[in-house]
């Protein structure tokens, strides 16, 4: 690590002279010779892609969610870091999207579509050397996450907190259970203890230590933090959780107020339908809701699109030789063996973290995508019939394709533009703004 820039002298620049020596180092040479690179095994060439199902009626309404974040590091003493996060939800209708030219969308047409159809949320999380008076960074972050989820500004109106409670307490069902036990944020080192909150509460008092705990503590952000700093993953995890809650807010409002229309909606998430590590506590109730809605006669149509990562890379190997208008629904053994490259005997892929199955879809040579579609109860080896509303989702895709990027969907492209922090406001502006507050 080079020395950081001070107020008088510039920072130290990392030397590149050391590169030559590293490449000659015997251990580095030996390791380099043994590493495998991603390749396409013979078995993958013989895998059978299935033809896409015959088209059914397309879905009428589209909800799409996306988020972005920008970490701002102040490079002068006291070297503070904060992360700006923005998420956005768009409501679109398929009929209007069909009128958009997929090659060169007219800005006025897009403007009309987006008018009054966008809701967004923004917040800021401290990561280093930034805190509220009288509190540690640990507690400042916990408080900030709770108050950000509560967001009562006109845009959000407390709806995200309602959705978190709706999922965590399974409020669509007759259940009146409290939260499953979780580790109390006040239980440091030898005072570790479990705690819980009763049905429908936003916050409460821990029955073991008597301190105030929040419903957001249930998600476990504090397990990733230290007393005096937090890793940047806290911000990216907050963003993913908020995106998920925002999409489920649209779903919940339709479920509660327009149930007759809910099965005409397509809910789209930019990214996989999964929640990682300790945060995956939301996954099981989400799966149960999908199953419940299906058996009640109101199937929910949702999909996630992965635009990077292991599955995306694998599709780049496989896709060019696959037949047009075909799909491949990925099975547990295939994922472990060819995509994760791990022993096939281990835990089933995504058992605790995923609420959708992964599939590759090839429309033509330019439109190949990695999609996730929910399956309700977890399926290790899902079949097409297990994927909820699969045929109608697939039938809607050709109506919302964008020709501006390979494998692109217009709703996700629009949501990217709205949620993006790197272009508007610019990161320089964010930096100036956060400095002027100090
Ligand atoms: Zn406690």
Characterization of the model:
This protein has 438 residues and is an alpha+beta fold. 33% of the residues lie in helices and 19% in strands. Strands 1-11-12-13-10-9-2-3-4 form a 9-stranded mixed beta sheet, with helices on both faces. Strands 5-6 form a two-stranded antiparallel ribbon. The protein has a two-stranded antiparallel sheet with strand order 7-8. The model has no long low-confidence stretch (mean pLDDT 87). This is NurA domain-containing protein.
Lay out the secondary structure.
Elements: H1 18-24, H2 26-34, H3 42-45, E1 50-51, E2 61-73, E3 81-93, H4 94-98, H5 107-114, E4 118-128, H6 137-150, H7 159-168, E5 182-183, E6 194-195, E7 203-205, E8 212-214, H8 233-257, H9 259-262, E9 265-270, H10 283-295, E10 301-306, H11 310-318, E11 326-329, H12 332-340, E12 356-362, E13 368-374, H13 390-396, E14 401-402, E15 408-409, H14 410-419, H15 427-436
Parallel strand pairs: 2-9, 9-10
Antiparallel strand pairs: 1-11, 2-3, 3-4, 5-6, 7-8, 10-13, 11-12, 12-13, 14-15
Helix pairs in contact: 7-8
The protein binds zinc ion (ZN).
Zinc ion binds at residues 184, 186-187, 193, 195, 206, 208-209, 211.
């Amino acid at each position: 690590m080079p020395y950081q820039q001070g107020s008088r002298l510039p920072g130290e620049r990392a030397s590149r002279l050391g590169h030559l020596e590293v490449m000659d180092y015997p251990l580095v040479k030996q390791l380099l010779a043994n590493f495998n690179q991603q390749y396409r095994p013979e078995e993958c060439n013989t895998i059978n892609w299935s033809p896409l199902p015959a088209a059914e009626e397309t879905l009428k309404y589209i909800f799409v969610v996306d988020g972005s974040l920008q970490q701002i590091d102040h490079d002068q003493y006291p070297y503070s870091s904060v992360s700006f996060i923005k998420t956005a939800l768009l409501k679109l209708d398929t009929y209007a999207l069909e009128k958009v030219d997929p090659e060169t969308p007219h800005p006025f047409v897009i403007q009309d579509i987006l008018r009054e159809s966008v809701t967004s949320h923004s917040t800021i999380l401290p990561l280093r050397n930034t805190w509220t008076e009288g509190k540690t960074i640990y507690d400042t972050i916990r408080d900030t996450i709770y108050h950000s989820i509560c967001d009562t500004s006109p845009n959000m109106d407390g709806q995200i907190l309602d959705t978190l409670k709706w999922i965590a307490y399974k409020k669509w069902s007759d259940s009146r259970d409290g939260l499953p036990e979780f580790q109390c944020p006040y239980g440091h080192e030898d005072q570790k203890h479990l705690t819980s909150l009763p049905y429908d509460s936003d916050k409460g008092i821990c029955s073991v230590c008597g301190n105030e705990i929040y419903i957001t503590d249930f998600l476990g952000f504090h397990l990733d933090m230290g007393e005096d700093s937090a890793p940047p993953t806290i911000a990216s995890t907050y963003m993913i959780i908020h995106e998920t809650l925002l999409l489920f807010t649209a779903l919940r409002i339709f479920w509660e107020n327009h149930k007759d229309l809910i099965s005409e909606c397509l809910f789209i998430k930019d990214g996989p339908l999964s929640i990682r590590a300790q945060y995956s506590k939301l996954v099981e109730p989400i799966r149960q809701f999908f199953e419940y809605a299906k058996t009640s006669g109101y199937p929910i149509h949702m999909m996630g699109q992965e635009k990077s990562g292991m599955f995306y890379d694998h599709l780049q190997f496989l896709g060019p030789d696959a037949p047009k208008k075909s799909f491949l629904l990925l099975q547990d053994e295939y994922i472990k063996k060819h995509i994760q490259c791990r022993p096939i005997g281990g835990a089933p892929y995504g058992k605790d973290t995923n609420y959708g199955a992964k599939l590759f879809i090839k429309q033509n040579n330019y439109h190949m995508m990695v999609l996730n579609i929910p399956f309700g109860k977890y399926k290790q080896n899902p079949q097409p019939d297990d994927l909820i509303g699969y045929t109608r989702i697939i039938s809607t895709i050709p109506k919302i394709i964008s020709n501006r990027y390979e494998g692109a969907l217009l709703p996700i492209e629009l949501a990217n533009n709205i949620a993006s922090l790197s272009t508007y406001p610019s990161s320089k502006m964010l930096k100036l703004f956060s400095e002027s507050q100090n």
